[in-house]
Structure formats: structure tokens, C-alpha cells
Amino acid sequence: MDKKKFSGKKFVKGLVIGGIIGGSAALLLAPRSGKETRKKIQDEIDDTLQLIMDVKNGAEEVQANTFQLQDLAETLIPDFIEGTEKSLERFKFKSKYRLEDIKKQLAKIETEINDFSNNLNE
């Protein structure tokens, strides 16, 4: 099953159409004087426009925050990678000599154990 992507334009279009239909239904179903009806229409239009502006401002804020996050990531990630690579190289360098020392100590211990074992057998 295909998933449809969210479209801001379709959302706003649906919002406006929904506002118009809702406003029209309210006018037809609730009898008022002409002045009250005009006030009600104007209030509905104002509310719908305000909602559209709120959605637009929210989308712009999300977009601005996305750009800031992208810039931050582009700045920090290369430094993080470089620092991690340097730390790894230092670790490899230090561990190389430690491993050699451990191998020498193990060989010495093994020799001493063999010597001790031979002395016990004699």
C-alpha cells in the first residue's frame, strides 16, 4: 500500500476549504440578523487567516531550526571524527608497546614455570 507524503500546501488548502464550508454551514443553519451574520463571517475569516499564519510561522520556525541543526552538525561532526581518529591512533600506539611487554612477561613466566616444573621433577 502506498503511503502518501504530507503536503503543507494541501493542508492549507484543506484548511481554507474546510473553513469556508464550515462558515457557510453555520450561516445557513443559524439564522441571525445581517449585521450579526457579517460579524460572524468576518470572525470566521479572521480565525482562519490567523490559523494559516500560525501554521506558516510554525513551518518557517521548523525550517530555520532544521538549517541551524544542519549547520551545527556540519561543524561538529568533522571535528568529532578527527578527534576520535586521533584518540584511536594514540591508543593503538600505546597499546602496541604494552602488548609487547605483556608478551615478554608471559614468556618469562612460562620459562619460570617450566624451570620450576623441571626442578620439581628432579
TrEMBL record:
Originating organism: Vagococcus carniphilus
Pfam families: YtxH (PF12732)
Keyword Transmembrane among record annotations: yes
Taxonomic path: Bacteria, Bacillati, Bacillota, Bacilli, Lactobacillales
Descriptive protein name: YtxH domain-containing protein
InterPro entries per the UniProt record, alphabetical: Desiccation-related_membrane, YtxH
Keywords assigned: Membrane, Transmembrane, Transmembrane helix
Transmembrane segments: 12-30
